[in-house]
Amino acid sequence: MIRTIGLTGGIASGKTTISELFRTLNVRVIDADVIARDVVKRGRKPYEKIVQSFGNNILLDNGEIDRQKLGKIIFAQKEKRELLNQIVHPAVRKQMLEERDRYLKEGHQLVVLDIPLLFEGDLTHLVDKTIVVYVRRDVQFERLVTRNQLSTDDAEQRIASQMPLEEKVKLADATIDNNGTVEESCEQLKTILRKWRIFT
Predict the structure, then answer these.
(1) What is the pLDDT of residue 200?
(2) How many CB atoms lie within 10 A of CB 151?
(3) Contact 103/111 with Cβ under 8 angstroms?
(4) Which residues of the chain fall short of a pLDDT of 50?
């Protein structure tokens, strides 16, 4: 029986859109990015480790972490990115699993774990099936520049820091081609869920 689905993709590939489609089907979605923002707030253990590792110059005036400053550092330097992942990922994984187990105990038939680094982090053992949200690189680039107001170089750096979407497609149990309309993506999702006998 399929109880958990791992949803992944690349930056600006449209995972949020697919997550919302799952929610319209009354499926609980646990978002790793949302949890990652939560675990690095002041007072949490990862926050202290990040400040020790990266210095006070990554902080805003209110003492919270300046995500843009930190992002510029980690997307430019692989070793810094790996260091941050070592600090943040265990805390994120722990909270995700706690939420997943709670939803399943409450009687929800299906839980989606929205994890950008599902394959890179070797986390497929946490789920029963995997879905990749795919877009062409030119579409991904354009969406990222527009959405995050990034320079061309910054956008290229961020896309290059992740496993290519074509590679993720090869590893996934199913793929949603998100180059078209939301309605088209919704139909693809429903087809996948019917095939897996989750919804009829």
Answers:
(1) 53
(2) 10
(3) yes
(4) none
Residue 118 burial (C-beta neighbours within 10 Å; 0-12, 13-18, 19+)? buried
Q: Which pTM was predicted? A: 0.90
| 200 assigned to some structural domain | no
In this predicted structure, what is the pLDDT of residue 64? 96
The number of distinct structural domains making up the chain is: 1
Q: Percentage of residues in the chain with pLDDT exceeding 70?
A: 99
**CATH number for the domain harbouring residue 18:** 3.40.50.300
As a whole number of angstroms, the distance between CA 153 and CA 176 comes to 28
* Burial group, residue 122, by CB count within 10 angstroms (0-12, 13-18, 19+): exposed
- Give the position of tokens 């993720």: 168
The C-alpha atoms of residue 5 and residue 104 are separated, in whole angstroms, by 13
Does residue 151 belong to any structural domain of this protein? yes
- Quote the domain boundaries for residue 150: 4-194
Q: Write down the mean pLDDT value for the chain.
A: 93
Give the per-residue pLDDT at 142.
87
Residue 72 CB partners (closer than 8 Å, separation 6+):
154
